[in-house]
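Wait, can you check?
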Amino acid sequence: MNKRILSFLIGVATMMCNGMSCGAQTQRESYVDIFSGVEFNYRNIYYNNKLYDLLINLTPGFKWHLKHQWMIAAEGYVPIYNDYGERYKRIRLNMAVVSKEAQWGKQFFKFSGGLFGRERYGIDMKWMYPMNHWLAVDAQIGYTGFCSMAVDWECSKMERVTGWIGARMYMNKLNTEFRLQGGRYIYEDYGVRGECMRHFKHCTVGVYAQYSDWGEENFGFKVVMMIPPYKRKMRKINFRPASNFRLTYNLQADPYSMLMYRTDPEENEREGNFNRNSLQWGANRMPADFSEKEGGSGK
């Protein structure tokens, strides 16, 4: 069964990429972004007279943007403060991905393969279909295994199928978005989640509620803040901070329910998974967070 799923995903990706258009950035010259951010983790377990355990990592990475919307990306972890134990003390590779965006009519696809976030590796497909200016449906499906470099090289076979399907409603005048999704997630739990997000200039704030067969009911909030500078010169090689800072809080302090891996080091709920110049829907219709200064030589 799993071999059939793998063959199906590879076949669909090959067939569609051969027959699809590549969107608005097809003719742009390739360029490289080199960046770094900070990942902040905490858990409120009272132990040894400590209220919180902290884990803070630097997350250096790069994206090599190629023609026809191909991209090669990687991200590493550099621990700078660690209360979480031996497993989290090593400098290690966290992500190494090759991805391709494509468009077929009004449908948008992103195919990815490699080492993903949350110590998963494999192949992944994301899909979105805007039905009109306020309603869209989307989905994600992946076929992955476990792969970690935290202690030593640990790897399992690719045999886990994960995925979800959902719908989005966007109120354009208020820049407010509602999302509903349900599916099977990376720890083999099943669940459904509803979210409400308000998009402001350079910032998105949202609340969510979810129910899964593992964590049962839970709710919390999310904040996505885009990091300046907002005007950038574009060259062949660009050095900058990470594009965004994300904060997610859930009331039950549940670290496992309804989780999916990332396939992009800078993936976030505000920017989505597709090129904003191609997909003009939702928050992509707002003024762009980042613009180009004159004087760059990246075009």
The chain has one domain: 2-292. The mean pLDDT is 89.
